[in-house]
Design a protein that fits this description.
This protein is of the alpha/beta class and 330 residues long. The protein folds into three domains: 106 residues, Cobalt-precorrin-4 Transmethylase, domain 1 (3-Layer(aba) Sandwich), CATH 3.40.1010.20; 103 residues, 3-Layer(aba) Sandwich (Rossmann fold), CATH 3.40.50; 84 residues, 4-hydroxy-3-methylbut-2-enyl diphosphate reductase, catalytic domain (Cobalt-precorrin-4 Transmethylase, domain 1). It is built from twelve helices and twelve strands. The strands form three sheets. Strands 10-9-11-1-12 form a five-stranded parallel β-sheet, with helices on both faces. Strands 3-2-4-5 form a four-stranded parallel β-sheet. β2, α2 and β3 form a beta-alpha-beta unit. α4 runs parallel beside α5 and α8 runs parallel beside α9.
């Protein structure tokens, strides 16, 4: 007689792999704090030139609190208080602020300021400055403004192949802080081939947070079938995380929040990795996690690639005011 017992079926465990580090970097924390502290000290409206960081949810929250986001300084009343975004501004913008007698609080990320200072240094030495970056990105526009006559922008190896400079013996390079590590290295390698005496920054310009998040993605790619990156479409570092994953052969999507997750992305997928760009709030990540749990992804593993412990001081013009208010309350 045949055995009528039914063999137990293997249970498929759906899993979430949560990457660390993820989300806010020190420059973003500082920039958001600057707006919140300014609103608390001076009250609304506080004008902010461009998005303080490239994240829709952050901007909407600050707007609701009284921040007024503007594109150019001529939209700010003469003598009013304005904050420069984390992406930095050109000297021309700084002059416009002086001409309009604006009270400026500069929230430029210190790592972006480092790139600006490198541009100034190379320009003073009469070098052609090759800026590696993405055209029309706010950070690149600001950096280009430091030495516009001496700077040329390249975005890929093909741009380097077409590059003509005044003196091949006096060439330097700097980079946007939120680029792909691999693509930037390819561009720098080609620059060194074409201009053997080219000079670069003492330490790479790509920021620690951009590097760490890309390395984390690379580390978990063999462990997952899909990567979801929380971040806005205009966030350069967030877009690079998607590109890194896709380049490794695994599907990836950039989403502002859980509402943008499409059911078809999850079909047949048992292991999903989740991370967030450097300007994406952690609450959006946790909401996504809870949503995925509700779709059957019951197991959660957090994978930490590198510990981050970076902090930046408040801008000097705001720090002084905070100290004065603290003293006054004592």
């Amino acid at each position: 007689m045949a055995n009528s017992a039914i063999a137990p079926q293997a249970v498929s465990t759906k899993k979430i792999i949560l990457l660390r580090p993820r989300g806010f970097c020190a420059g973003v924390v500082r920039a958001i704090d600057v707006v919140k502290i300014a609103l608390g000290l001076y009250g609304p409206p506080i004008y902010v030139r461009k998005e303080i960081v490239h994240n829709k949810h952050v901007v909407d929250e600050l707007r609701a609190a009284g921040a007024v986001f503007i594109e150019e300084l001529d939209e700010v009343p003469v003598g009013a208080r304005v904050i420069f975004s984390a992406h930095g501004v050109s000297p021309l913008v700084r002059k416009q602020a002086v001409d309009r007698d604006l009270q400026v609080i500069d929230a430029t990320c210190p790592l972006v300021t480092k790139v600006h200072l490198e541009a100034v240094k190379f320009a003073r030495k009469n070098f052609t400055i090759v800026l590696i970056g993405h055209k029309d990105h706010d950070e690149v526009i600001g950096t280009l403004g430091e030495a516009p006559e001496a700077t040329v922008l390249v975005s890929n190896v093909e741009d380097v192949n077409r590059l003509e400079v005044k003196d091949p013996e006096r060439v330097s390079f700097i980079t946007q802080t939120t680029l792909s590590l691999d693509e930037t290295q390819d561009i720098v390698t080609r620059l060194r081939e074409r201009f053997p005496k080219i000079q670069g920054p003492a330490a790479q310009d790509i920021c620690y947070a951009t590097e760490n998040r890309q390395l984390a993605v690379k580390a978990v790619v063999p462990m997952c079938e899909l990567l979801l990156v929380v971040g806005s479409q205009n966030s350069s570092n967030s877009r690079r995380l998607v590109e890194v994953c896709v380049k490794e052969g695994v599907a990836s999507h950039l989403i502002d929040d859980l509402s943008e997750v499409r059911p078809e992305w999850l079909e047949g997928v048992d292991k999903i990795a989740v991370t967030a760009g450097a300007s994406a709030p952690e609450n959006l990540v946790q909401e996504l996690i809870e949503s995925l749990r509700g779709r059957g992804y019951g197991e959660l593993e957090e994978v930490e690639i590198k510990e981050e412990d970076v902090r930046f001081n408040l801008p000097s013009e705001l720090n002084r005011t905070v100290q004065l208010h603290t003293i006054a309350r004592v």
